[in-house]
Design brief:
The protein is 43% helix and 14% strand. With 282 residues, the chain is α/β, with parallel strands linked by helices. Strand 4, helix 4 and strand 5 form a beta-alpha-beta unit.
Length: 282
Amino acid sequence: MRPPADQVVLVTGATDGLGKALAAELAGEGATVLLRGRDDARGQSALAELRERTGNARLHWYRADFASLAEVRELGERVAREHDRLHVLVNNAGIGTTLPGGGERLESADGHELRFAVNYLAPFLLTRLLEPLLADSAPARVVNVSSAGQAPIDFDDVMLERRYGGVQAYCQSKLAQVMFTFDLAERLRDRGVSVNCLHPATYMPTKIVVAAGATPVSTLEDGMRATLRLAIDPQLEDVTGHYFNGVHDAHADPHAYDAAARRRLWELSERLTGVAAEPRDG
C-alpha cells in the first residue's frame, strides 16, 4: 500500500462527526482528500478549516445529496472524470434512527425509504460507479462504515411501508452494508481492491447519537482511529471481506452470511439503482 501522501481518498459525510475527523487526519498525513457532503456552505467551511489546520492544499469539495440517486450518479461520474486515481473510498455518510424525521417514515427523491436509500443504496451505487477507477488504482480499498446495530431485511417489505420503525429502518440499512461488503469483497478480490466494514465505536458524540437521546460512550477519536486503520494500515493490505468491531475482527448478524439473502439483496440493489447487472461467479 502506498503511503498516505501518495493516495487519493474519498470520504463521504465529511462535513462533521466521524467523517470530518477522518478527513482531517488523512489531510494531516498528506493525502489528497475528496470531501463529500450535501450542503455547500458547510462543505466550503470544512474545506477551509482543514486546509488551514493541516496546511494541505490537496483537498477538494464535492456536493451530492444521497437522498437522490441522480446526484449520487453525478458524483461518481464527476470523481471519475476529475481524478485518474482513487485509492480509498470511505462510505461513511448516513442518517440515524430519528434524524431526520423524528421517527416518521420518510422517502427519498426516488420514492425509497429514506434510511435504506441514504445509508445503503447511495453507497452501493457510488461504489459500483467507482469500481473501475478503484481497480485501475490498485492496490485500493473500500471501507464501509456500518454499525453493530443490524437487523434482518424483510424482502417482502424492504421499504417498511406496512410497519415502520426508525430503529428497524436504520438497522436493516446497516446490515445491508455488511452484506454488500461481503459480496463486493469476493467480486474485487482478484482486482487488487480490498473491501471491509466496521462498527467504528459505540455511541460516539455525533449528531446522530445526540438526536437519538443516547449517552456517548466512546470518543470520536476511537471511531476515527478504527476507520483510519482499515483505510491505510499497510498490515491490512491483504485483508478483505471482514467485519470489524472497532479494531477487532468480529461476527456480524447471522443473516449477513446467508448467500441466498445476499444475492437477493444484490439483485434488488442493481434494479433500484439502475446499475447494469453483470455476470457473477457461483
